């Protein structure tokens, strides 16, 4: 009878130890899954914010050459005030999501936005006036675009680095 009792008690102890181990492993697994899901969410938010920047860069790459004087300006100045403001939508969305961006990128976007704020006081519904302003601001906007594009390349390489 005693060997049966020893076998049963050993089985009960093994079941208890197995249950406790399984419980601990389950908790650790859920904790890891939660952390992974959090990282996925943060990375998705960062990708969304950087996509607005990518679209704004694309807008600033469209260049027009004036037939009259050969001056260059961005296509966004080829319209009225509403047209120019509409072409800044992605910049506004990127800045609105700046919590997900690197500090250097936020600084560069704020610099670009400052350019557009100054330009905003000068533009009108007169397209000729707007193209003249576009020619004046061509080089500063190209410089800002290039800076943002370089930062975008750099930031995308470290997009997965999520610090908690």
Structure write-up:
The chain is mainly α. It is 73% helix and 4% strand. The chain contains six helices and two strands, in the order αββααααα. It has helices at residues 2-59, 81-86, 89-96, 103-120, 127-136, 138-157, and strands at 63-65, 72-74. It has a two-stranded antiparallel ribbon. A hairpin with a 6-residue loop joins strand 1 and strand 2 (72-74). Helix 1 runs antiparallel to helix 3 (89-96). The termini are far apart.
Compact description:
The protein is mainly alpha-helical and 164 residues long.
Helix/strand structural class: mainly alpha
- Helicity range of the residues? over 70%
Strand tally is 2
- Into which percentage range does the β-strand content fall? under 5%
Indicate the mean pLDDT: 88
Structural shape: rod-shaped
Whole-Å distance between the termini? 59 Å
From N to C, what is the helix and strand string?
A: HEEHHHHH
Number of helices: 6
- Strand order, largest beta sheet: 1-2
Over the alpha carbons, how many angstroms does the gyration radius reach? 29 Å
Largest sheet: 2 strands, antiparallel
- Give the uncertain stretches in residue-range form: none
């Amino acid at each position: 009878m005693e060997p049966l009792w020893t076998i049963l008690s050993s089985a009960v102890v093994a079941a208890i130890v197995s249950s406790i181990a399984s419980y601990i492993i389950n908790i650790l697994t859920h904790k890891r899954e939660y952390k992974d899901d959090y990282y996925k969410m943060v990375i998705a938010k960062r990708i969304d914010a950087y996509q607005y920047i990518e679209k704004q860069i694309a807008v600033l790459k469209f260049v027009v050459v004036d037939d009259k004087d050969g001056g260059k300006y961005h296509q966004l100045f080829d319209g009225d005030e509403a047209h120019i403001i509409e072409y800044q939508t992605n910049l506004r969305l990127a800045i609105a999501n700046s919590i997900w961006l690197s500090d250097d990128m936020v600084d560069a976007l704020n610099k670009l936005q400052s350019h557009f704020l100054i330009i905003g006081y000068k533009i009108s519904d007169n397209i000729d006036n707007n193209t003249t302003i576009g020619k004046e601001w061509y080089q500063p906007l190209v410089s800002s675009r290039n800076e943002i594009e370089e930062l975008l390349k750099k930031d995308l390489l470290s997009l997965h680095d999520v610090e908690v």
